[in-house]
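Hi,

I'm pasting everything inline rather than attaching a file, because the server keeps stripping attachments. The sequence lines come first, and each chain or strand is labelled.
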Amino acid sequence: DQQVKQNSPSLSVQEGRISILNCDYTNSMFDYFLWYKKYPAEGPTFLISISSIKDKNEDGRFTVFLNKSAKHLSLHIVPSQPGDSAVYFCAATPGAQKLVFGQGTRLTINP
Amino acid sequence: NAGVMQNPRHLVRRRGQEARLRCSPMKGHSHVYWYRQLPEEGLKFMVYLQKENIIDESGMPKERFSAEFPKEGPSILRIQQVVRGDSAAYFCASSPLLAGFTDTQYFGPGTRLTVL
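And the predicted assembly:
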């Protein structure tokens, strides 16, 4: 039972363009959502989060959008840079508890 | 300003041996979470602990796995009688104690366990 899904295993974007990573969830109890970035052989690095009471949160080049009715969130990175190449995980939680992760999307930024 | 620390970074065990993985949370953090990542998969929750208490162990296998977070010292994830299927990356995360808030979890670099 995959409660958090990232349906695109990989995404390739040209440097300077916008990267859009998508995530869907099924559990209506989730009220806090996070995006993590992961390089090989390292731990996930927190990027940005959003509470269910908001529909958008922005931090520099990163913006997360939440559509509660569609149970969908997305991460926008603009402009994309070569250092953004990594695996991106979305995660959700019903409170100060365990995170439920998606399978990840491998983002490649091409020069 | 040290982050979450895990050791060892790499651990090799033969089938039947015990594996002990350690996690020191960020300073000021009193919540610890353990996750496991199998190859080509996302992270899966194992256990959530506060000092001297296991809060949620719903993701822990019923046998051979145990976790603790003592009053003093790091959190320990212990795997007894390891099997090849235990080979994975084990990540620890920590968050601060802020009553009523959902806190971001910050991850350590992980321990890569290989069972021969």
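The radius of gyration of chain B is 14 Å.

If the labels don't parse on your end, tell me and I'll reformat.
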